[in-house]
Amino acid sequence: MPLGFPPLAVGCCRQTLVTPATAVVGADTCGSREGVCPVRCSDPNRGLESEGQRLSSLAFSLNNSLGRTETMPLEETALPGEPPLTVPIVIIGNGPSGICLSYVLSGYRPYLSPEAVHPNPILHSKLEEARHLSILDQDLEYLSEGLEGRSSNPVAVLFDTLLHPNVDFGYNYPSVLQWKLEQQHYIPHIVLGKGPPGGAWHAIDGSMLTISLGEWMELPGLKFKDWIAGKRRNKKCDRAMPEEIASYYKQYVKVMGLQRNFIENTYITSVSRLYRDQEEDENHENEFASAQELQIENESEWAALTKRNWEVCGYQKTTDGSHIPFCIFAENVALATGTFDSPARLEAEGEDLPFVHHSVRDLEGAISKGKLSGKVDPVLIVGAGLTAADAVLCAYNNNIPVIHVFRKKANDPSLIFKQLPKTLYPEYHKIYHMMCTQSHTVICTLHPVYTSFPEHRVLSFKSDMKCVLQSASGLKNVFKISMALVLIGSHPNLFFLKEQGQSIGHNPSRPITCKGNPVEINAYTYEATKEPNLFALGPLVGDNFIRFLKGGALAITRCLEMRQKKKKHAIVEGGGDGVA
Ligand SMILES: Cc1cc2nc3c(=O)[nH]c(=O)nc-3n(C[C@H](O)[C@H](O)[C@H](O)COP(=O)(O)OP(=O)(O)OC[C@H]3O[C@@H](n4cnc5c(N)ncnc54)[C@H](O)[C@@H]3O)c2cc1C
């Protein structure tokens, strides 16, 4: 038997969390007596709700077990012969992608607002055709046909234009959607993440301003402007601070009542199929009917059903630092792990030396500890993106000399600074101006505050705090530095999948990346084309901006709803047993 949640037994409301040598958490979850558990009831919606309640209680009891393992009695409450509880969908990652998916799975459904007129007349007339239906019940391919936007995923472009019509043309039209909570559409799910809800935003340098306007990063149903009003003294700036965004996402989960589905401090270490066989590969259509719905009576039936399921394993960190291992069975898995977990490396000699860092936070830490005060050697900053620019800004504001190294020419048209309007992003334009005007070729010697080295690369770092730079022509320069920051991007970390998930990318011979090699998905379901019942959204499928990840959440929910309907229909057609 796998470690962890199973045996959360079907047909009984006693929840059991077993860990190998630690605690068992048992809790009566719905108050019903054994034998009259509502998961056995004949109303499929009631059944699902009850299952949802049990999953929520599971999340609740695991959350409650944090730091309490020592006081919990050691108890084995597995019920032999009972099939384990299987979650219809487990979401890995609790950033904006995971949160938004949880929102839609919870039954919040988008409709065209009664008064709304979309500025695109073709799209508007299509929306009018089925105004009474939720967008989730409509043909997404038809609605998104012909739309253009800054995502290569059509459903992402569709929902972006419904939420922010014509925003890329400088308009500020209100969303044409209204969201209704329809609890009968709730799909039980669990969201697992390393930290608090908000994902990468809890790790992003808190003192900078975001690139996007605050409202572009809001999630449906809670206006960022309304939420921030009263929290901020300077209400003029439309750009937000990362810490405000992180706090907004955390709050969002509470306000929308999603908390019961979230389990924090969880680290997923493996996601694998329970069983694999020929039949699965040939006929991989997912029909997520739970064991409860199908009234599975014995283990062999259960084994047949779970053939296609996933086993999601990991551990939860407790407040005392210990790890509680667990395994969950899931019919579907959604990858919402973002792309910021593994900083990109130069692979230069000496990159592991202690003075070489890969996060702006390390610069801030060194500054706050006073390590860079007074007359110090320059800080080396590698990279020409916005994170490197943030580091330059941070050093500059603290009077720390900077050597800034990047591979492109300073006037390269692909540099991100060229795409940012000067009036909105004055701080980045200031850095860009320095990159162009304070180059080592212009000033010949090191500038006391900042010197750029365009078209250079780091050849090596030495243990005596020196770094060797090399120009495009092969010329070498050696500098004594006080710290190095390599800020050249980051990669997703899908180590928990077989082959680190490479097999699900567009190019299976290369690692998954947001821009070059995202997960290959069906454009209208976000299911991995090479791995049935595995979904991905957000930067993993190329949607790095929060504006665009909402489309993934809607497409996945729609896909699961349709499969569920199909399954229920098949049970009824097949002379069902009164379950559906
Ligand atoms: C410095 C910076 C500035 C940005 N500015 C903007 C901006 O202005 N506007 C904008 O739209 N976007 C911006 N972005 C991009 C934005 O942060 C991402 O698009 C967004 O956070 C993606 O959300 P996500 O939920 O998919 O992933 P994330 O926010 O990255 O969340 C994924 C979560 O999953 C967790 N996770 C990963 N692996 C595991 C595992 N094995 N087990 C458990 N949990 C796991 C991660 O730790 C993380 O907490 C910025 C990004 C950075 C780094």
From TrEMBL:
Signal peptide: none annotated. GO terms for molecular function: growth factor activity. GO terms for biological process: negative regulation of cell growth. SUPFAM superfamilies: FAD/NAD(P)-binding domain. Gene3D superfamilies: FAD/NAD(P)-binding domain. PANTHER family: OXIDATIVE STRESS-INDUCED GROWTH INHIBITOR 2 (PTHR15192:SF4), PROTEIN CBG05349 (PTHR15192). This is Oxidative stress-induced growth inhibitor 2 isoform X1. The gene is OSGIN2.
